[in-house]
Amino acid sequence: MKVLIANRGEIAVRIIRACHDLGLATVAVYSEADKEALHVLLADEAICIGKSYSTNSYLKISNILSACEITNADAIHPGYGFLSENAKFASICNSCKLNFIGPSSESISLLGDKSKAKEIAKKVKCPVIPGTKGSVKDVNDALTEAKKIGFPVYIKASAGGGGKGIRIAENEHEFIKQFISAQREAEASFNNSDIYLEKMIMNPRHIEVQIIGDKFGNYLFLGERDCTIQRRRQKLIEETPSPVINSHLRKKICNAAINIAKAAKYYSAGTVEFLLDEKNNFYFMEMNTRIQVEHTISEELTGFDLVKEQIKIAMGKKLSKKQKEIEFKGHVFEFRINAEDPSNNFTPSPGKLNYYIPPGGPNVRLDSQCYAGYVIPPFYDSMIAKLIVKGKDRKEAIMTAKRALKEFHIEGVKSTIAFHEYMLDDENFIKGTYNLNYIDDLMKRGCKFKK
């Protein structure tokens, strides 16, 4: 099997390495801006698929299919973002007899519609956030429903993801403005302006469960990830296990995730996301039908290679382990090192990496596409690297993280290293006593995140 990776950056590098470990040939695709990217250098073959903007390259289905034809690739791994949750793309791949390394187009379509996914959760008796049944007709219908639910409410894109197409209305007065804003962003981001409403859970934590299933009805969960440290709904730090979840709650939330995947006849890797309220009640939020950025910490916690397993499932193989064989050892963090200035409202900082010395040593993993001299383009996300650290417990993992961040040297662009160093000395972070609004609240108070 020859695998074309329909993506870029660190996830493309990650997939290429997994393919090579399995003895599979690889094809990298790249835009004009990415001609010197690491994934292009590491793949067995590479082909340019268009100009710099993703709409002319990584989102251009016809160009990706042409690349498959030119290189005789017979499988496609979509990574995350771009076309990874595009049901039409998955369907086209299958109709072209290309092995799509991911779930079925039917599962993507079903679970990609947030309102339909919510109905599945209800059927398997998983708690859901109170809200509308499906999308609202228009702004007037939405306002009527919002009054029934009670303010504050979330206004969410039905086809949303990545924190886009989401607004909060604190009261009736600001509802219409926020609704129209969410609708416009949803149309621009997903070509789908459908909106649904949810009751806003006050001071929640963001908890997600990594699952994986094969085409024979076998499933595994790899524990939960706590992704509560976010700014403007964009994740910055993830950890597993969560510092606030005990073994009883862990079993309940992981089993709920598996039940949702089973009900959707889902296979491949996927993530079921929940909100956890102040009383430790959990509510289904959505399911991401792809590999996640933060899959790394689940791998390090369990020693289970999710990307290799995805590929083997696509090849028609059964899961390589049973649930009782999965061991959960230690505590793991992932720190997203982005080309952003945390002292200036996380303003993007693309440019040339004049100096790049990554950390190493025991219990440190770095997933990155960067090297000294590499130019981070302004057209895509600003990630430089994912720093993954492990310890026998949370305290030791924090100490390992401090050491690794101190070793990480970058010049030429601003980075979020200073933010992470600040957080590792933050009393509430150390105690685990924070919620989804914590970073945004610090920003509102003028915090510059300087160590």
Describe this structure in words.
- The protein is α+β, with helices and mostly antiparallel strands and 451 residues long.
- The protein folds into three domains: 100 residues, Rossmann fold (3-Layer(aba) Sandwich), CATH 3.40.50.20; 70 residues, Dna Ligase, domain 1; 240 residues, ATP-grasp fold, B domain (D-amino Acid Aminotransferase, Chain A, domain 1), CATH 3.30.470.20.
- Helix content is 34%, strand content 27%.
- The strands form six sheets. Strands 13-12-9-10-11-14-21-19 form an eight-stranded antiparallel β-sheet, with helices on both faces.
- The longest helix is centred in the middle third of the chain and has 19 residues.
- It starts with a strand and ends in a 7-residue tail after the last helix.
- The model has no long low-confidence stretch (mean pLDDT 95).
In CATH, the topology of the largest domain is named: D-amino Acid Aminotransferase, Chain A, domain 1
Tally of strands: 22
User: What structural class results from the helix and strand content?
Assistant: alpha+beta
Helix content: 25-40%
Q: Just name the CATH architecture of the largest domain.
A: 2-Layer Sandwich
Q: CATH homologous superfamily of the largest domain, by name?
A: ATP-grasp fold, B domain
**Unreliable parts:** none
Q: What is the CATH domain class of the largest domain?
A: Alpha Beta
Q: What sort of overall outline do the alpha carbons produce when their principal axes are compared?
A: globular
Mean pLDDT: 95
**Order of neighbouring strands in the sheet with most strands:** 13-12-9-10-11-14-21-19
Domain tally: 3
| Alpha-carbon distance between the two ends | 49 Å
Q: Any idea what the radius of gyration is?
A: 21 Å
How much beta, percentage-wise? 25-35%
User: What is the count of DSSP helices, taking H or I runs of 4+ residues?
Assistant: 15
